[in-house]
Amino acid sequence: MNTSAMLKSFCDAVEQRNGKAFAELFTEDGVYHDVFYGAFKGRAKIAEMIDDWFYRTATDFRWDMHAPVSDGRALYARYTFSYRSTLPEANGARVMFEGVAIMTLRDGKIAEYHEVANTAPAFVDLNFAPERIARIFARQGAALKARPEMARHLG
């Protein structure tokens, strides 16, 4: 598996609104955990996430992966990501953030995608009200606490 080619296909598919091509990078039972929208399981749902969810309130996506590292079972890459928001309160702003993509691989495909993202600049760009940001962060916190690897941190 050529990780650079996989990551280029990953980014290109998002930028081209090609959910089918994006979903083909995943295993049949693959899961994409999106920092904003939650988990999408299976190729049909992952394709829907790109074609419908991502483009519902945004356009002109740009996604770049930097400095990927992989052992064949896991793939990590720092990324920069932006889009033009179509939400009324954003006034057409280009929304930007950076993060780290964390992928579990199986048979040359992505079995699971997680990300750790600095979303704060995006919320400022989107002109979200503080109460809305607090609700989003509360959902992200609940999802973090529900993960098995956090169990010992909760006691």
UniProtKB/TrEMBL annotation:
It comes from the Bacteria. Transmembrane segments: none annotated. Pfam families: SnoaL_2 (PF12680). Residues 9-113 form the SnoaL-like domain. Gene3D superfamilies: 3.10.450.50. This is Nuclear transport factor 2 family protein. It comes from Bradyrhizobium sediminis. The lineage of its organism: Bacteria, Pseudomonadati, Pseudomonadota, Alphaproteobacteria, Hyphomicrobiales.
